[in-house]
Structure formats: structure tokens, C-alpha cells
Amino acid sequence: MAGGRRRRRLHLSKIYSYTCGKSSFQEDHSNIGGPGFSRVVYCNEPGSPAAERRNYAGNYVRSTKYTVASFFPKSLFEQFRRVANFYFLVTGILSLTDLSPYDPVSALLPLAFVIAATMVKEGIEDWRRKQQDIEVNNRKVKVHDGNGIFRQEEWRYLRVGDIVRVEKDEFFPADLLLLSSSYEDSICYVETMNLDGETNLKVKQGLETTSSLLNEDSDFKDFRAVVRCEDPNVNLYMFVGSLELEEERFPLSIQQILLRDSKLRNTEYVYGAVVFTGHDTKVMQNSTEPPSKRSRIERKMDKIIYLMFGLIFLMSFVGSIIFGVETRQDKLTNGRTERWYLKPDDSVIFFDPERAPMAAIYHFFTAMMLYGYFIPISLYVSIEIVKILQSVFINRDIHMYYEETDKPAQARTSDLNEELGMVDTILSDKTGTLTCNSMEFIKCSIAGTAYGRGITEVERAMAVRSGGSPLVNEDLDVVVDRFAPKVKGFNFVDERVVNGNWVRQPEAAVLQKFFRLLAVCHTAIPETDEETGNVSYEAESPDEAAFVVAARELGFEFFNRTQNGIFFRELDLVTGKKVERLYRLLNVLEFNSSRKRMSVIVRDDDGKLLLLSKGADNVMFERLAKNGRQFEAKTQEHVNQYADAGLRTLILAYREVDENEYIEFNKSFNEAKSSVSEDREALIDELTDKMERDLILLGATAVEDKLQNGVPECIDKLAQAGIKIWVLTGDKMETAINIGFASSLLRQEMKQIIINLETTHIKSLEKSGIKDEIELASRESVVKQIEEGKALLAASGASSEAFALIIDGKSLTYALEDEIKKTFLDLATGCASVICCRSSPKQKALVTRLVKSGTGKTTLAIGDGANDVGMLQEADIGIGISGVEGMQAVMSSDISIAQFRYLERLLLVHGHWCYSRISSMICYFFYKNITFGVTVFLYEAYTSFSAQPAYNDWFLSSFNVFFSSFPVIALGVFDQDVSARFCYKFPLLYQEGVQNILFSWKRIIGWMFNGFISALAIFFICKESLSHQLFDPNGKTAGHEILGGLMYTCVVWVVNLQMAFSISYFTWVQHIVIWGSVALWYIFLMIYGAMAPSFSTDAYMVFIEALAPAPSYWLTTLFVMIFALIPYFVYKSVQMRFFPKYHQMIQWIRYEGHSNDPEFVEMVRQRSIRPTTVGYTARRAASVRRSGRFHDQIHKDLVDF
């Protein structure tokens, strides 16, 4: 391809009705040069003085949160936004004053350690983002150096005005103006999957004037042009500008713009001029910061912190009053105060009876510092460490790895792990999420005869609920082997048609025309593998690819496309041999959403002119000629049956075109294409509409977008877990309902509440076109239908009757209005299933917001396309499916998975574990800190609130960091209250998270009370054991340092033994950290005590010389452990035996060996917090219920239990 020589000489603009080769100056172009349209690009002169004066942004992009300069200030600001960290910063600063009850280093060092650890974690995460930026910015592209030569250069060095050459399958490095391509008329194919999630190829075309001038590399040596256009903006689908070339001015539209991050496909190369770079590009303008999401547990944890602040304030306030009173009453007696040992004469304010009020105020600040140990300084950093490790386990779970695409699960944020265990409602997209978005040709109707013996999953569901299927009878009874090797896009089985047998059919000529149409009427491009000779296709949509593949598999193989020809091989009816045929392609009448059809005009090898067309049934049947309706009734019947089976249908028709008629059409068509008037599009539509009339019906196609593997089973298990599932889809109501049946979201016994605007009155108003009347009548109709639905729900009362709500997009518009949405939500939440059809992306996001805010429960949205981004960002948790619709949903999600079925393990196993672990972890954190803090408080109260710490300074600061944090981190990472197998077996266990049983205020206060009881036992037993006896054989009594050392030892033992009692699943890691924490205390005490007295202060040799030799030290420690833990042990035994939580019932099953007893397991499983109304299990239960055995059996089981 040296020198840019063109290999492919296709002049596609002659057959397409492109709007780009010639275009008109629309009204918007008059704004060029004004506000918002001030950008000027000097093409091929990026370094000129005029260009440099503009000072446009470079092409370097940055997605990191920090820079080298901003990391420390911004990260520190983020850390001290947390109220606990800010509190410790204030107390740390106060510790530098004389008010401090401890050494300032011992207060500031742990805070510095915690802040540094969190900043390191932030830095590592941001460095990973930096690595991704480096990879993108260092990609290379060919850039014109000014001498007709293109050299490789990194993306980051691109400037506005540079000319670049992009090769096939490369990404565009910036927003480019398409100048020319390997096609003679500057056509190129672009994949925009990274921008809008669509996999179909888009066609772009440069201006004719640049296409004719710029054919190879050397042509750019003297090329100069100026582009004047709009300023950078977010609109992906609009561009306004003009090109000034050789003193002429040409209008530019989005059709000439190649957007950054889209990919060049099926085109050897393109040349482009850089218009927008870096953060000015449209894709970067559209990139927004993801919304800040915090879990409910984290928000509740903040409330606990505030509660602890209130408690500290109250204790400090009360203690200060008592201290002030005590100080005022501390009068001189016989020349000395009663508390002479506090040395009041040496203090400026403290302990001075004459200045008691000020002493009380100063004591308040000192007490606020001293009682700060009620708040765990390491809580936040420990939780972050735990969540990161939990995310690693999610990412590496082999059970959520999809081998076919080599995609594991990926937790893109670790902040929401515990929310996965609290999901109340799932809002799911359909296409690509529940289904594969991989179309398969499965059935067709030709000449009034239905072909295709395959049975869709929807039909299987229909057969189950109705005892048979309209398309399954004694003549069509073959079920496709789902495990047989298949061709992608082709799942058609019918011996009457395959292997050339179609020639024996009575209407063989019609079948031949039908398959020829599939092979010719498309815009696909074939690619032949040079080694194997196999032909593959690049098509604009999955449906179109399926049609071309089907034609190939049925003997009509499209294998080559040229400038004006389509080549295919077929079986000759006369000779019975394969022959190559050439159809000359004259015009392509493109598909769009308003036309709902696509046609080609061709000349066959007999010289006949043919118009071949395919489109939606509602536009095609009305275009049939009187003599072309021979098979209409049967075809319509089959199309309805295909829709019932969840299939997507198209009608195929053709007609012969008269030579004179075509000459006239082609002349008018070319004139319309070349027109620069504003009504150009209307002219083209009028001409094509006139040509696509009087068609002769051939038949209909039916393609299936199959359910993903495991979807019904996953939905059933989630429904058993009590999770509500809503489907938000853009599909038709009939298709969505049938997919609902196939996936077990709907069942036959359900009463369907359908809300739509398909009434006669509304339709007649729509024909009149009076907008206000239509809106008023529509709103009233929707309100009436919602009220009727609520009445149905109320009438059913407490019965087990299940309802399904199905609403279309038009009705949803009114249902989401402020005055109506509360009533709509009440109806929806009372139904077992909710399906919203024809939903726009905005409506998906609004429904998600309504459910989230209206119910106050955790919502999870799951989708795979760009149209799901709003929904994913609005929900508490956004799950992106890394499927075939690009990465937009994944990039906007919190967690990505490859298949919908992995949601079962993600929620029921990882979600439950994370919720249980984080809940227990936080409760234990406050337990241990209250145990520790209350001993500090009691000792200070015992010393008449004199602000005397119970422990050495470094004992105080080390407790949270070294002697109690490691076991709680291990709990958060490794503990399992129930194994994964039992999470699946008893899905209702998940309701513990939905109802927040494990992190309720009752449980939190219970753990705090347990800490208070433990602290009382520790303080009073230790104090009393040393009060009335000599401590050692030398006759010495126990001093402050001995009591403090004894109490601290007991605290370390008690909180770690409490952890051992709380763990459900021991691993070697737990043993190491629990017993290691205790051992670390003794090692620390010996090493610290051996240091110089100026550093170790009152801990100098306290263990070796005082504590260790004394038998009472060891006996007291033993007694304290027993008495402090007995209350918890008794409570837990009674609660576990007589009032077990659901997970404890399952633990009993495991411990008592009932896990293989089906009757006992079923009895526990039926202790339902919420009846299951969705899924095939509910369908079976309804069947048993109808037989009259269900309630009796459950009653018997519960009585036995």
C-alpha cells in the first residue's frame, strides 16, 4: 500500500443515497464564526503562527484523579473530609498543648500511619489509571511530516491541523475530518461500539472535492485548507462547519467526522485532518465523573460515629462538672489539700480550688482527647483494606469466568461490596442482558408454508403453560440439538429445504427468489479467508449478518462485492450444479427507523431489472400489489405465530421494474442526491416511496435472539431469595411478554395488569392531531388503568395470587409524572413481576430513580449497552454485561460480569458474604473500642476525673493499630457464616441483607452493650484483685503502672477471644492473627519495657520485673477472661438454641448432619420471609397448590420443626 495506492475501486456513493458527498448550507451554518462556532483549523499547517495563536488543547488525555502536584493536598483533603479523621487531627493538634493527657507523638503517629496507608491505597489505584492513560497516549499513528511522507508518531503529540493516515482496524486518535479513503469516493466503514454501544457499522463519506484531489501520500505535500466549525461540545450526532479550499467554501456535517475511539473497519485506510484533540474531542466531552456512591452500611456507620461523638461529649461534660465540683471542694486542711498527690500547687489552673470553673472547662478538652479511644482510628482504613481484598476474590472467582470471551468478573469499585448482599430490586435490560444479542436464523415462511423445525425457548415455555405450541405439531416435531455444533447466526433445521431439497418443493421458484433476495438485498461486505476459502461477513447489524449466513448455508453463497456487482453461487434448477451469478447493483435504498425497510435495485444475469425489498410487516403489507398478495393471509398468520414465539420478523417482497420507469427514477434520484436544497431528504424519501410499491410477496424471515444460558435458573434462584426483578426494554410488548414467560418471570397463573394507550378513543384523537387533547386523554387513561390495577391488588387481599404489571413507553411517560408516580410505584411494588416495554434510555433511568427513592431499598441495574448507562449510574449498584454491545455500559458500571447467570453467585454468595463480614466487622470494631474506652473512662472516674490515663501513652495509641485490628481484617476477608453450597441451597438466606438484620440498631447496640459488660468485668475484677493485698514478696503494693498493665493484658485477651467466639469459619490465617495479636502484646511489652525510662516512662521493666513474676497477674487474667465472656456465651447459647436467625438454622443443619435430609432441608427452606411468586419453582409450587397438598404439607413440616 506504499504511497497510498488504492486497491479497492468501489464508487459506492453512486448506489447509496448518502447525504454527505454533496450537502447544503443548512441554517446552522450561518452561525459559523459566531459564539460557539469560533474554531478555526489550518489543515496541514499545525505549526503555523496563526494556528499556534489559537493555543488549542493537546492530544494528551488524563483520566487520573490526581497529578503529581495535586496528590498530597487533594488526597489529604479527601482523608480529612471523614469526620473521624478530622476529629483525630484536632485531638492530635491539641495534644501539642499542656491540656494533653498523653505524649503528642503517641497520638499523631497512629493517625499519620492510618492516613498514609489510605493515601498509598489511593495512589496505587490512581497509578493504575495512569498506566491506562500511558497505554492510550503512546499508541502510534501515521502523521504527515510536510513533505508528502507519513511517519509513525505517538497519539499524544498530535496537534490540531495535523494530517493523519489511519489503517484498517485501527482506532482514530482524535476527531478527524475525513478527506479521502481507499474507496474512490471517500467512503469508509466505522465501528462506534466504544461511543454508543452499537456493533453495526456506520458509513462515513468525505467531500467529493477532497476525494478527487487527495489520492495518495504525496498529494498532501502542497495541500492547504481551512476548517471553520463549532467549538468542542458533547453532541455525538451533530457537527456544523465549513471547509475553505481553493477559494471555495464547502459545508461539513457529522457525516465527514471520524470520532476518537471509534474504529476503522472494512476500509484499507483513510486520510483525515485533526479537528479536535484530547479533552476537546466529543468522546472526552461526553465522559463524566461517575456519580459518588456510598453503601447504606457506610452511611449508617457515619451515624454510629456521630453517636459515639455524642457519647464522648456527654461523658466529658458530666466528668468535667464532677471534676469542677471535686476541685472546688478540695480545700486546705492542716496546710494541705485532700488531693495533695495531684500537686495542685504546681499547676497553673488544673486542681486549683480557687479557679474550679476554668479547671472544669480545661478538663473538658482533656477528656475529649482521652475518650477519643471510643472511636476506632483504624476503622476506615481496615474496611478499605478488607473491601479491596474482597474485590480480589470476586475478580478471581473461577465460577464467574466466561471462557468463551476470556472475561472474568471485575469489581471496578470496592466501595459497594456489602451492597451486593442487600439488593431488593433488580432492574434489567433485555436485549444482550437476558438474551444473547446474537441473532440466529431459525424459521421462515415462504409461499405460505412455514419452514424451520427448531423450537425456541419461548415456545418451550409456551408449550409448558398451554400444553402445546402453535408451531409444534405432529408434522413439525423436531427439536434442535442445542449442543450440536452450529454455524454462528444459523440455527435452521428442516430437511425439506437444506441440502438443496428445496428444489423438490411445489413452490421451488418462489423459494429460489426468496433465498436470492437474502443473498443480494443487503450492504454486507464479504471477507474470504485465503487459507481455508471460508467466507465471513461484516454487516451493519446482527440481523443482516444472520440473513446472509442463512442464504449461504441454504446454497446461495454471497462471496464478492465490486463497484457495481454482487456475486453469489447457487444451485441451478436445470443442471443441478452450482453456478456463479452476477447481479449488477444499481441502487441501494437505505434502511432507517422511519422507513423501516431496505431495498436494492439490481439487474440479474438475464437482464431483468428487479427491486428487492425487506422490511417490517406494518409497512410492507400495505405496499403489496393486488396480484402480489397470494400468500398474504398465511404469511400474516405465521408472522403472528413467530412474534408469539419471541422471534423478530421481516417481510420479503420484490417486483420487476420497467426499463423506462427505472431510467426516469434513476435520473430523478441522482438529481435529488446532488441537490443542495434544504428539502433534499424529503425528495429522496418521496422517490423511494414511489418506487417501493406494487410488490409481490415472497414470505417472511424469523430470527431469534436467544436467552443466555442459565437465565431462567438464575431468575428462579434470585426470586427464591426474595429479590424483585423488573425488565426495562425497548422491545415490543408481545416480544417482552414472551421473553418473560421463557425466563419464568411470568407464568400462566399470574394475572397480567397491562397498561397501554391502544384504546379506540386515543387512536382517534391521535388521527386528529390535537396535541393537548391527546395528552389529557392519555394521562386520564393511564391514571384510570393504574387505579384499576390497585383495586385488583386490594381485592386479592392476603391470597397467594400473583400479579404482573406490563406497561408500554407511552404510558410510562405519564406514569412517571410527579402527580402519578407514587401511585404507579405502589401498584408496581405490589406485583410479582414488572415489565416496561418500549422504554427510552431516559425512562430507564427515571424508573430506576423512582424505585430507589420511593422504596428506600437497594436497587441494582444491569445492562450491556450505551442506552443502559443512565440506568446503571442511577441505581445503587450498576452491573455491566461485557457482551457484544461494546464497553460503554461496562465503563459506567460498578461491577462487570460476562453473563447474566453470574449474577446469582455474585449476589447470593459474594454479596451475602461481604454483607455478613462487613456488618460483623463494624460491630466488632465498636465492641472492642467500647471495651477499651470504658476501662479508660472508669479509671478516670475512679481517680475523681483527674484526666489520668489508665494506660501508658504508647499502650493507648497501639491498641487499635497493632493488638486488635489484624483479627478483624481477617474476619472481613475470610469468614463464612454459611458455605457457598448452602447459599445456593437456601437462597432465602439472602433476605438477612435485604432486611439488614445483621446491621440493625438492635444488633449494633447489643454489641456495644457487650463491650460495656466486658469493660466492667475487666476494670472491677482487676481493681479489686489488687486492692487489699501486697503485689509481690517484697511487700510492695500495686501501683498505677501495674494496674494499667494488668487491665491492658485482660483487654487484649478478652477482645481477641471474643473474636475467636464470633468467627464461623476458621482458617490458619485467623489462628495466626488472633493468637499472634496476643503474643505481639507480650513481645511489645518486653521490648518497650526494656527501653530507657526516658522513653518507656512508667512501662519500664514493668512486665519482666513486676507482672510476669506475680502469680496473681496470670490468675486475674484467667478469671477476667472467663467472667467477661460468660455473658456473651450464655446469650449466644440461648439465642442460637431457641431464637436462631436464618443463617444459624442453616448452621444447625450442617452441624447436626441434616444437610442430606430432604424433608428437614425443605422444611427450613419453606420458612419464607417473603413468598416466592416468580421463577419455575413458583410455577411448580402453584401446580402443587392447585392439587390441594401444598398448605397441608407445609403446616405439617412447621409443626414438626
TrEMBL record:
It comes from Microthlaspi erraticum. Signal peptide: none annotated. Its cofactor is Mg(2+). The chain crosses the membrane at residues 304-325, 360-381, 925-942, 954-974, 1004-1022, 1042-1065, 1072-1091, 1111-1131. Residues 890-1141 form the P-type ATPase C-terminal domain. Belongs to the cation transport ATPase (P-type) (TC 3.A.3) family. Type IV subfamily. GO terms for cellular component: plasma membrane. ATP binds at residues 429-431, 544, 591, 614, 648, 729-731, 838, 844, 867-868. InterPro entries: ATPase_P-typ_cyto_dom_N, ATPase_P-typ_P_site, ATPase_P-typ_TM_dom_sf, ATPase_P-typ_transduc_dom_A_sf, HAD-like_sf, HAD_sf, P-type_ATPase_IV, P-type_ATPase_N. GO terms for molecular function: ATP binding; ATP hydrolysis activity; ATPase-coupled intramembrane lipid transporter activity; magnesium ion binding. It catalyses: ATP + H2O + phospholipidSide 1 = ADP + phosphate + phospholipidSide 2. This is Phospholipid-transporting ATPase. The active site is at 429 (4-aspartylphosphate intermediate). Keywords: ATP-binding, Magnesium, Membrane, Metal-binding, Nucleotide-binding, Translocase, Transmembrane, Transmembrane helix. GO terms for biological process: phospholipid translocation; protein localization involved in auxin polar transport. It comes from the Eukaryota. Mg(2+) binds at residues 429, 431, 864, 868. It is a multi-pass membrane protein. Residues 41-107 form the P-type ATPase N-terminal domain. Its EC number is 7.6.2.1.
